[in-house]
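Thread: Modeling a multi-component assembly for a lab meeting

Hi all, long-time lurker, first post. My supervisor asked me to bring a structural picture of a complex we are working on to next week's group meeting, and I have zero experience with this. I have the sequence lines for every component (488 residues in total). Could someone generate the structure of the whole assembly? Inputs are pasted exactly as I received them:
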Amino acid sequence: MNKIKKLILNNIVPIMMIIIITLTIPISKMSASQLISEMIDRMSRNLFLVLSLLIPIIAGMGLNFGIILGAMGGQIALILITDWNIIGVQGVLLAIIISVPLAALLGVLGGVVLNRAKGREMITSMMLGLFINGVYQMLVLYGMGSIIPLSNKQIILSRGYGIRNAIDLKGIRMSIDRAWGVNILGYNIPFLTIFFLFLVCIFIIWFRKTKLGQDMRAVGQDMEVTKAAGINIDRTRIISIVISTVLAGIGQILYLQNVGTMNTYNSHEQIGMFSIAALLIGGATVVKATIPNALTGVILFHMLFIISPRAGKELIGSAQIGEYFRVFISYGIIALALVLHQWRREQEKKEDRKKRLELQLNKKIEGAL
Amino acid sequence: MKRIINIGLVFIFFLCVSVYLFIDGKQHKIFLENLSLKSLKAPEKIIVFLDNDKKGITIRSEKKAVGFVKGKKHKIKINYSENGEKKEKRAEFETPLNKTVTLELISLISEKKNWIKEE
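Re: Modeling a multi-component assembly
Sure thing. I ran the full set together rather than chain by chain. Output:
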């Protein structure tokens, strides 16, 4: 009985989500083929970003809200390739190459800041994201076209500098998704995107087994013991953030090539929240997250995305109600997961204290005898 | 020292890949002209197929059109009729990096050398 209770408690978030989705699907009146088609599209769109969150969790840095730093790097790369008129798969690959040093640089900055805020990484990374967002907006709004030379009039504001609010990525739209696209049973399977996702999964699995990966795990478990073992904690933590930020930059490029338009000033803003919500919905916690968690999370989170507006429309006649419901559920889940995490930690501490007291008591009794 | 060399090699590799992607992925705007020359009259209708384009661009006599191509080397196929007989012409051309190209289709049909103009 205790085992079942523990299993339910450990997976309370995905269980709740499955119940909500199971109840909502019949209300939305969506067919299975519609759902599958939408899911394939969204899986390839978002999974890379969610996977980028895994490595900092191994290093004990919690959920990296700072992935928006990488997303900004990716967007700057996309602005540049749009200005240079580089299209197709070549455009996406060039954007990825350009985004890597930008994201790595921002990742180092993030890592250094987070090292000064050990134990409060999540809120610090969130605030850092907001701060760098200001710098990004200043660069894009005032620097591009004046300091950084751009020539494409379609993306520059009429005043001669600054980037327009929305950029049409028609040159690279779906280029990766369609490159090795195969039609199976009427569904378009984006094989190249799946290949990219497969590569990042393999990278994460391989990385965990390397010396650096083991160091990260050790840092995540106990910093004092790791320090005593001679591992450079700060360096290890910075590397984990750099990897996460670089992967997020690539993830943002893959996401935007699928969508086909970029909101220059706010495409990246919600990425952190979205990805973290998806990961938590998949059953991950602040201290433990796996590839299956990411996969399950993306499926459940996007299932809710697809069906809730339809369900709202069918139930009350307004899709907006369903959208409010989705926002309430998805962000409520983040809050619930964080509260559960804290509650579990408190419980563990209580049990620890109880065990220690019992041990002390036993020693006293033995001494008295 | 070995580490610096390795980093340098990786940097050079990615630089080369970037240059290749830049050249191979660059989109070029091409102006297509179906204008009569002094001695040659432009065909009534020309259909131009650039690279793997299947739809084609139709240009009437004395008109111009715009086409888009990706990369450096291209193929062009034009379909037209001459004295009621359907004809086809194929050719290859290159687009320079930062220049606009104008193709004089009538010169291409009449197999003149200067059918590509760079601006």
